[in-house]
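The methods section describes the discrete structure representation at length, but only in general terms. An entry of this sort, consisting of the sequence and the corresponding backbone structure tokens, reads as follows:
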Amino acid sequence: YACDLDYFFSAVPSVGMGVWSLISGPGFSTFSNPNSSTSSVIVINYGVYDFLWTESNGICKDSDIVVVNFNQPPLVDAGTDVTICANDSAVLNASGGSSYIWSPVGGLGDPNISNPVAGPLNTTTYTVTATDSNGCTGTDSVTVTVSTSGFITGQVFDSITPVMAGIVKLREYHTNPTQMLDIDSSYIDSLGYYFFSNIPLVQ
């Protein structure tokens, strides 16, 4: 069988001249070298084709038939790209085959199923190779983006930055340049602590 529209023959030549020809099939065929026992052939439609290898030596001839089933490769879909938070995970979902192998395996729960749980530490592109019932394979990829953004909840005492219409300046220190975040204080206690929740934290 073939897993596409091309095939390489492997006839064993004897004496005399040989030639390939198409006996039957659902479409036309083109041989790379019809006089070579190891010629390749390209067909225009999927399906079963009968090819004839004929050898001639003077008035003597001999021939043999090769039957090739040209199968369409599986249309593999690795699913849509997904974004997760750090230390989180997502379920991947591939389709198009009967068995699956994912790579790389880092961050995957089971790389040999269609829907593994993916929880990589860093943004990773996973490639899945799917095999169908004919033994033909196809591949596709999906990217799991690990977001460096999160949310912070807590309190801050700010005796320098004045409260303007309920807005407090919260200074966050990172390896990147210092970020100034405007946050809405939920409430202020008697000691001047500003309480906040679910504020985006940029890292």
